[in-house]
Amino acid sequence: MILPIVAYGDPVLRKKAKNITKDYPKLDLLLDNMYETMYGAFGVGLAAPQIGLPIRLFLVDTEPFAEDKDFTEEEQEQFKNFKRTFINAEILEEEGDEWAFNEGCLSIPDVREDVFRQPRIKIQYQDENFETHIEEFDGLIARVIQHEYDHIEGILFTDKLSSLKKRLIKGKLSNISKGKIRVDYKMRFPAMKKKR
């Protein structure tokens, strides 16, 4: 089932999410719904806060990047085969010289900006079977993970912009929170929630 994606301005996007245990109710169904929601919105990542749940859960599937000819064949092959579920994740290390990449977010449609992030991370997480992994990632895969990880920390990519850039997009963000935007996927806007 495709779930509505929570729009910028909803308080759930600002909460530090809580860990879950393997007896979290209907977790398999939730994961299926989150993947369906992400694919339905043409995303490469989706975090639980983006569907209104303040829990430490996010997914990443970089396959859409595999079609992008700006990347090497080796990178494209990597992207094609990278699909992960991250539960109770903790980034242990971030290293390297920060690099800029144009990011967007399903919760903040029609806003894309260059964001600086470190290129390498080490992360500990549990998969959908609650097996613990400690892995290192770099490049674009690390960036997608960092972006989704920020969501479970209550951070949005727009928080990482300069004060000038923030001022320039202020009107767009205000319109998103009021539902004054057209998107081709299901969204839930803070203004609509208050009216009920």
TrEMBL record:
UniProt protein name? Peptide deformylase
Q: Which organism is it from?
A: Ichthyenterobacterium magnum
Gene Ontology BP term (one):
translation
| Coiled-coil zones | none
One GO molecular function term?
peptide deformylase activity
The residues responsible for catalysis, as annotated, are 148
Family of the protein in this entry: Belongs to the polypeptide deformylase family.
Q: Mind telling me which CDD domains this protein's record contains?
A: Pep_deformylase
Gene3D superfamilies, alphabetically?
Peptide deformylase
User: What function does this protein fulfil?
Assistant: Removes the formyl group from the N-terminal Met of newly synthesized proteins. Requires at least a dipeptide for an efficient rate of reaction. N-terminal L-methionine is a prerequisite for activity but the enzyme has broad specificity at other positions.
Q: Which UniProt keywords apply?
A: Hydrolase, Iron, Metal-binding, Protein biosynthesis
Task: List, alphabetically, the Pfam families matched.
Answer: Pep_deformylase
Main enzyme class: hydrolase
- What InterPro entries is this protein classified in? Peptide_deformylase, Peptide_deformylase_sf
Q: Which cofactors must be present for this protein to function?
A: Fe(2+)
Catalyzed reaction equations: N-terminal N-formyl-L-methionyl-[peptide] + H2O = N-terminal L-methionyl-[peptide] + formate
* HAMAP family listed in its UniProt record: Pep_deformylase (MF_00163)
Q: What is its EC number?
A: 3.5.1.88
Binding positions for Fe cation per the UniProt entry: 105, 147, 151
